[in-house]
């Protein structure tokens, strides 16, 4: 029985371990799979302006610094779904650069093995590992219990009610003080690690120079002044920087932009969603308030000789100012002392640091702790350290744990040298003043990034999630309207319009934790439809035939590329020359033909136009269009033969050839055409027609998925369709226009921009009802019907609205094909569904034409 009990305990433990693994994999944490790190060399002012715009308008690019001037290097982390975009932008603006890292998540995953568990006893604290907040605080308390001259400091609570712990080491109350501030930026784990190492050395080292430091100064060390943010980097987002206080739809203030030193000046942002958001006001944050109050009190009780703020990365030793090029009065002394520190660092392990004023060395910044301490408290020696790695580091803030000890040894060596030099200068034995200006080191030659769009330069969606949320209140509607306007990392399929609405949103892997937090904070009901969109795309890739596929091999068990579809259409015209001909109605922005097929078995018949592929990512649309065309040509089923012989047909399977091609080579989920507008590319062609152009349900932002263009018919593709209809609606007697889209299982008619009903609303309602009934009878697939405005969402500038009026086509319809509105496949419909979709759509077409004929739309 005892053995059985032990077995059950062991089994239970194993199951718990397995459960924890599964939970970790499915955890609502930010991930950075295939997020890339780019290093670019800015050479021109035009490049500066482009990068500034890019940083301003998209949260999918994480800038490590800002674009300030030519002859500057800049590191940028790029979301995988923007890889194709950044590759094209670098080429278009002739920006030289290199890819430092292809997959940020690999670094984070590797680091996990070097994190000690939360319950690590303080006796086991070491510097071969990174530690949780609770472990650091426990270790501080443990050291206080062991050292009589070490006092525990407890500052007012953080936003999440955590105490800011520090310690004061004082062997002589008359000593001047050295303050070391660490962990103000949450993701910079090397900062708390190095600071605890320095404290441990001050407490236990037998080296003479270290003992001298411990004896000569009162040391005040705060290992983690941003406890909420630091904890969140372990539980939510490894690369989180700010505190966690909510501001609207976003969280967090950059505490090192929140001090009352030129607050909200250069290098700080007033946007709560930015990484350098400076807060609602100077010292608006409880962490900043607690630290400044302590420092003001400390400065009143004792002389603070030096203040060291410890950050990473870039290997810099910097002093005020960050907000102005004006030099501080003791600039030369600070430079000389700082260079003593960099020399000591290099002697320790050969690591090269650079010294200078903040604005000279890294970038402009305002509201930081070092500038405030220097100005407000008069601390003469105020420095910021940016620890390992170098500016072009591939590790960034994810410094391997094996570098903790050497990095910390370098920091301690710098402290020793700098305080020794400052003491020498204070005694008057200064020697010649060092006045050489700091020279910024630039990486002058980097290979131009040239990515193969289908591989290296293609967008990816690893661990991007698909959510379905319910907007229960007007507050929810406003919340998601703000989110869509603000975040480029959340892709909305539809717009937030009214309470009671459900909405599908794709969320970048790096924003999952933020999004989950937003749902909880605002009590929004939501569920995850798909946890990894890239898996859908990868699975689909196996069903895509290569571009070299012969036209005779085209079928409907696979998806095909533009070249194969066009070649197949040419082959049809060649094989059935008596009644099939090619119609080319224009050229795309990139010069590709917009090609169609005319099927006319008997002359002078009423005509039906079928439009496909206006939205590039909706692959089921061209697949269904080619299926229908093939059935009309080859089927012997009487109802299909009747359709084929009684009417002329114009099929345009891909009216957006550039966009469709790009979904195979650059971005599977691309929607628009490919015409550039500033930094962004593409117009939603189904918002570019002159039917209430620029109205509801369209955007004037070129970076939005439903950008309507610079004017109605600004795009060659929409112009081609409109001119074809103008030229043929009377002569070819076009009576029906059908546009094929996906997804949502809808059959709709005009209007999209108004609830006003068209003149033949009842007829169109009857036609759609008959069609839906016929479609459902084939496979049981359920569709809904009605006007676009009633059925899906308001939209303006659509092709069927224009075809109806002023185009003059009385039966104008839009299909939204499979799947349902809460589809987990979205536009990535498995190829195995092409045939059933084709068959049910064909049945709907038969019903549409029959009911339209019954209602007299094909009468002379």
TrEMBL record:
Q: Which superkingdom does the taxonomy of this entry point to? A: Eukaryota
Q: Name one GO molecular function term.
A: zinc ion binding
- List this protein's GO terms for biological process: proteolysis
Record flagged with keyword Hydrolase: yes
Q: Does the keyword Signal apply?
A: yes
Task: Tell where it localizes.
Answer: Secreted
Keywords of this entry: Carboxypeptidase, Disulfide bond, Hydrolase, Metal-binding, Metalloprotease, Protease, Secreted, Signal, Zinc
Question: Known InterPro entries for this protein?
Answer: CARBOXYPEPT_ZN_1, CARBOXYPEPT_ZN_2, M14A-like_propep, M14A_act_pep, Peptidase_M14
Signal peptide per UniProt: 1-24
Catalytic center residues: 386, 816
**Which Pfam families does the UniProt entry name for this protein?**
Peptidase_M14, Propep_M14
Family the UniProt entry places it in: Belongs to the peptidase M14 family.
Query: What is the role of the protein in this entry?
Result: Involved in the digestion of the blood meal.
**Could you identify this protein by its name?**
Zinc carboxypeptidase A 1
């Amino acid at each position: 029985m005892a053995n059985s009990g032990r077995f059950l305990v062991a089994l239970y433990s194993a199951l718990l371990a397995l459960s924890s693994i599964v939970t970790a994999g499915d955890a609502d944490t930010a991930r950075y799979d295939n997020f890339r790190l780019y290093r670019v060399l800015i050479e021109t002012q035009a490049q500066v302006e482009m990068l500034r715009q890019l940083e301003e308008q998209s949260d999918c690019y994480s800038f490590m610094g800002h674009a300030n001037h030519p002859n500057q290097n800049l590191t940028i982390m790029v979301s995988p779904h923007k890889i194709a975009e950044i590759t094209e932008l670098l080429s278009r603006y002739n920006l030289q650069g290199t890819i430092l890292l292809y997959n940020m998540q690999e670094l984070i995953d590797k680091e996990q093995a070097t994190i000690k568990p939360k319950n690590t006893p303080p006796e086991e604290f070491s510097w071969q590992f990174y530690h949780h907040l609770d472990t650091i605080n426990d270790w501080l308390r443990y050291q206080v219990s062991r050292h009589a001259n070490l006092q525990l400091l407890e500052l007012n609570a953080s936003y999440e009610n955590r105490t800011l712990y520090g310690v004061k080491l004082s062997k002589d109350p008359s000593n001047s003080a050295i303050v070391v501030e660490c962990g103000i930026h949450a993701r910079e784990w090397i900062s708390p690690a190095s600071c605890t190492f320095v404290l441990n050395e001050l407490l236990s080292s037998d080296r003479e120079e270290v003992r001298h430091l411990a004896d000569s100064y009162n040391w005040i060390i705060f290992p983690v002044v941003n406890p909420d943010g630091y904890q969140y980097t372990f539980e939510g987002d490894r690369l989180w920087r700010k505190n966690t206080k909510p501001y609207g739809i976003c969280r967090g203030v950059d505490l090192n932009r929140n001090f009352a030193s030129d607050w909200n000046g250069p290098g700080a942002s007033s946007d709560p969603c930015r990484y350098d958001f400076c807060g609602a006001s100077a010292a608006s944050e409880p962490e900043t308030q607690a630290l400044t109050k302590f420092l003001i009190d400390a400065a009143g009780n004792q002389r603070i000789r030096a203040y060291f703020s410890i950050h990473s990365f870039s290997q810099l030793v910097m002093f005020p100012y960050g907000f102005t090029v004006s030099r501080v009065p003791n600039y030369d002394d600070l430079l000389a002392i700082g260079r003593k520190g960099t020399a000591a660092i290099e002697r320790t392990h050969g690591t090269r640091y650079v010294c200078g004023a903040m604005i000279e060395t890294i970038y402009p910044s305002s509201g930081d702790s070092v500038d405030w301490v220097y100005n407000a408290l008069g601390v003469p020696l105020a420095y910021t350290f940016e620890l390992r790695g170098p500016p072009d580091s591939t590790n960034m803030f994810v410094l391997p744990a094996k570098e903790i000890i050497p990095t910390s040894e370098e920091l301690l060596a710098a402290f020793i040298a700098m305080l020794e030099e400052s003491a020498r200068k204070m005694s008057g034995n200064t020697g010649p003043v060092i006045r050489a200006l700091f020279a910024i080191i630039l990486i002058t030659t980097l290979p131009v990034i040239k990515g193969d769009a289908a591989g290296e330069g293609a967008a990816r969606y690893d661990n991007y999630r698909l959510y379905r949320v319910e907007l229960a209140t007007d507050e929810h509607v406003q919340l998601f309207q703000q989110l869509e306007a603000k975040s480029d990392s959340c892709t909305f399929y539809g717009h937030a319009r009214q309470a009671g609405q459900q909405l599908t949103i794709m969320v970048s892997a790096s924003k999952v934790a933020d999004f989950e937090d937003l749902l909880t904070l605002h009590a929004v009901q939501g569920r995850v439809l798909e946890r990894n969109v890239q898996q859908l795309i990868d699975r689909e890739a196996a069903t895509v035939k290569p571009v070299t596929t012969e036209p005779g091999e085209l079928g409907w068990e696979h998806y095909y590329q533009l070249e194969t579809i066009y070649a197949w259409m040419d082959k049809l015209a060649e094989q059935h020359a008596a009644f099939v001909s090619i119609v080319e109605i224009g050229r795309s922005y990139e010069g590709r033909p917009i090609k169609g097929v005319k099927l006319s078995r008997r002359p002078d018949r009423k005509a039906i136009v079928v439009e496909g592929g206006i939205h590039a990512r909706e692959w089921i649309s061209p697949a269904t269009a080619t299926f229908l065309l093939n059935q009309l040509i080859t089927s012997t089923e009487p109802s299909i033969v009747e359709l084929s012989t009684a009417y002329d047909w114009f099929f345009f399977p891909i009216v957006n050839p550039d966009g469709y091609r790009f979904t195979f080579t650059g971005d599977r989920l691309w929607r628009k055409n490919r015409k550039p507008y500033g930094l962004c590319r593409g117009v939603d062609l189904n918002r570019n027609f002159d039917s209430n152009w620029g109205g509801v349900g369209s955007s004037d932002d070129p970076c939005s998925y439903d950008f309507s263009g610079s004017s109605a018919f600004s795009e060659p593709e929409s112009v081609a369709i409109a001119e074809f209809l103008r030229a043929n609606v009377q002569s070819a007697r076009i009576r029906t226009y059908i546009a094929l889209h996906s997804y949502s299982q809808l059959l709709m008619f005009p209007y999209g921009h108004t609830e006003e009903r068209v003149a033949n609303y009842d007829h169109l309602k009857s036609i759609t009802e008959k069609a839906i009934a016929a479609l459902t009878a084939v496979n049981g697939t359920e569709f809904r019907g009605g006007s676009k405005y009633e059925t899906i969402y308001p939209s303006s500038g659509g092709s069927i609205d224009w075809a109806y009026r002023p185009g003059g086509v009385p039966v104008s319809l839009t299909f939204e094909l499979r799947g349902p509105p809460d589809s987990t496949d979205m536009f990535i419909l498995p190829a195995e569904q092409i045939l059933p979709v084709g068959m049910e759509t064909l049945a709907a077409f038969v019903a549409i034409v029959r009911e339209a004929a019954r209602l007299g739309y094909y009468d002379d």
